[in-house]
Each structure stands twice: as C-alpha cells, then as structure tokens.
Amino acid sequence: MAYAMTDQILTLIRREHDATIGLRHIGVLVPWANTVVESELPRLGLTHIVWHYARLVPDNQGTALDDSFLQGLVRAVPGALGQLSRLPLAAVLLACTSVGFSYPLDVRVVSAFDALLAGLRRLGARRVLLLTPYPDHLAEREAKALEAQGQTVVGHASLGCDDGFAEVTSDQILGLLGRFTRAALADADALVLSCTAWPTLDVVEALEARTDRPVISSNLALALAAMSQAVA
C-alpha cells in the first residue's frame, strides 16, 4: 500500500494543533496578488490558529515573477511586518517560496522554502521530484537551492509561467508527471509542489495515487511550520 506524506503531514499538524492550548496568532506575509494562501490555509481546519495576513506590495507594482518582483517583495517585508507589530504573534511566515530560495532575509520570518526544507527533514525525505509553475530558470534555481541544503533533486518539471498561477488546473499539475521517467519516479522519496500561489490541495491525493509517492506542497509546509512554532 502506498504511504501518504500528506497524511503524515496532516497527522503532525493535527498532533501539534491538539497540543496547543488556547489560541495562537500567526502572521503571514502574502505577495499582493496571491489569492491561494488565504483560501488553502483555512481549509486545514486549524481552529487554534488565528491567521493574520499582511500584503507584500513590490515597488514595481508588478505581478510577473521575475527578480525585480522578488527583490521588491524583499523590500516590502519591513513594512508588512510593521502592520503586524502590535499583535501577539507566535511566528511570522513568508508565504513566498521563490523569495526563500532566491534572496537571504535579515528578519525573523519563516519562508515557504524554509518550511518545505523543515517538512522534508521531519518526514525523512532526501530524494525529491520538484514540480513548479515557475519559469524554467527559477525551477532550476530552486533545484540548486534544494541540493545546497542536502536534498537530491532527481528531476524537476515546470509549467513555465511567470504569472496567473491561481488559474493553474489540477490537470496541468498532473500533466507534469509526464516529464519524468519511470526511473526518476522510482528513485524519488517524495514530490515537492513548490509555490504558494497555485492551487494544490485538490491534486495532492491524485498525485500520490498515481506515483505511489508522498507529496508536500508549499502551503502544507507553511501549516506545519505554523504548528511547530505555535507549540514551541
């Protein structure tokens, strides 16, 4: 029988959620055009967590995923943190995976990339297949960043998009599997769905069923990071 990392992640999240006494407040910094984070996190039913969102508005006022946009998000972090500064937060999450593997941050936030790495470590996955909606060069950058953190990326596939991630369909995500050889699928411990801005919750089960491999997404990883911080 296939084992499911989603089940393992949700078990960890639920265990830590149930160990939490009272309400815990978690700040979430969200790129200004991202509509998926605030739709997926509440679906996990974490009633002990109060999510507080602040928007990251890049100074170029753009939405296309390029280095100018990412650098603008980094510059917007202090202002977004200021919006949350009067709240009793257990942690602040940066709901952008691309910033996390592209630019160092000198503030105390947990990026979605940090959360993915922590989730993979906790679940014992060391060899991964990387699926993204990103332009190819960003997918390659993330693969190198994962390798630099001790993961072995046995393959990566991307949709080549730089915008409109919320419109990605489950069929498009499933279609990425055709880019991998059977050998790569057999060699992987897990699949990584990188990016907080494409909708992945509804496709994880199908990916696991088709590959017999566990799946971790950026938003599931953020939820696990939130619970880890909440009980720390």
Fold blueprint:
Blueprint (H helix, E strand, L loop, with lengths): L4 H14 L5 E8 L5 H4 L8 E8 L10 H17 L5 E6 L2 H6 L7 E2 H12 L3 E6 L3 H13 L3 E7 L11 H6 L6 H6 L2 E4 L10 H8 L3 E3 H13 L2
Parallel strand pairs: 1-2, 1-3, 3-4, 5-6, 5-7, 7-8
Helix pairs in contact: 1-10, 5-10
Q: Please, could you describe this protein's structure?
A:
The protein is α/β, with parallel strands linked by helices and 232 residues long. The protein has 2 domains: 5-115 and 221-230, Rossmann fold; 118-216, Rossmann fold, CATH 3.40.50.1860. 43% of the residues lie in helices and 19% in strands. The chain has 10 helices and 8 strands. The strands form 2 sheets. A 4-stranded parallel β-sheet has the order 2-1-3-4. α2 links the parallel β1 and β2.
